[in-house]
Design brief:
This protein is of the alpha/beta class and 244 residues long.
Length: 244
């Protein structure tokens, strides 16, 4: 299925339940990785930080991060998703990750979550992210990790109904081990800075609906995200600095 059509259809239900529990935990942990990159910019207290989210969807993570940036932009290929981001007042453009409509070196931090695994030409997308990052800035990229509980569940469970007309198997999806994920950057003019892992210990999203268990698990996931267990996270995140 055409990715734009898939995400336009998904946009009608995408935010259902994402303000709490499992999905809120994912967004919070992902946003914290971007904040870590911001805090490592030189000088540390640099004013006027600019950011770009590649595959911003409805703007949920932008909503968590916009106060950390003087200017935060978003790009997505789905007009349906972007209609929600615009309703939140965010500066967004409709474009694919492989052709970002921004000048070279325009942003201090360029990040992407839950999107790059659905981009077939991953090399082109990463080149574009690096291109629009200023010298000394950061690229933060998330990949789906097959060496994880989530990866195991995805291999065993049937297709998930997204909206009644589309399923999660209708869109291209790639899984990369942490080593493979880092390997995608091997030919790019960036240096590895740090990594993190999201959803290390959670077997299924539904377990977060149990109040007591969910609270304990969210705290444990916060610890695991930066522990040695991060290599076994369902969502593996690596951060790269562009020399400058």
């Amino acid at each position: 299925m055409d990715p734009q059509r898939y995400y336009d259809e998904f946009s009608h239900t995408y935010e259902h339940g994402r303000d709490r529990g499992y999905h809120a935990m994912l967004d919070a942990l992902e946003a914290s990785v971007v904040e870590k990159a911001i805090d490592r910019l030189h000088p540390p207290a640099r004013a006027g930080v600019t950011g770009l989210e590649v595959g911003c969807g409805t703007g949920l993570i932008m909503a968590r991060l916009h106060k950390r940036f003087q200017r935060l932009c978003g790009v997505d290929l789905s007009p349906g998703m972007l209609s929600h981001a615009r309703a939140r007042g965010f500066e967004v453009e409709c474009a694919p990750a492989t052709n970002l409509p921004y000048p070279d070196g325009g942003f201090d931090v360029v990040y992407s979550f839950k999107v790059l695994p659905h981009v077939e030409d991953i090399a082109a997308a990463l080149r574009e992210m690096v291109r629009v990052t200023r010298p000394g800035g950061f690229v933060v990229a998330e990949f789906y990790n097959p060496l994880s509980l989530r990866g195991l569940v995805k291999r065993l469970k049937p297709a998930t109904n997204i909206s009644g007309r589309v399923h999660d198997t209708d869109v291209f999806t790639r899984f990369d081990t942490p080593r493979q994920a880092r390997g995608h950057f091997a030919s790019l003019p960036v240096s590895f800075e740090f990594d993190a892992g999201v959803r290390v210990l959670t077997p299924t999203a539904a377990i977060h609906r149990a109040p007591a268990v969910g609270t304990i698990l969210r705290r444990a996931e916060g610890w695991a995200a930066h522990s040695p267990l991060r290599q076994f996270a369902g969502f593996y995140i690596c951060a790269w600095r562009k020399p400058g």
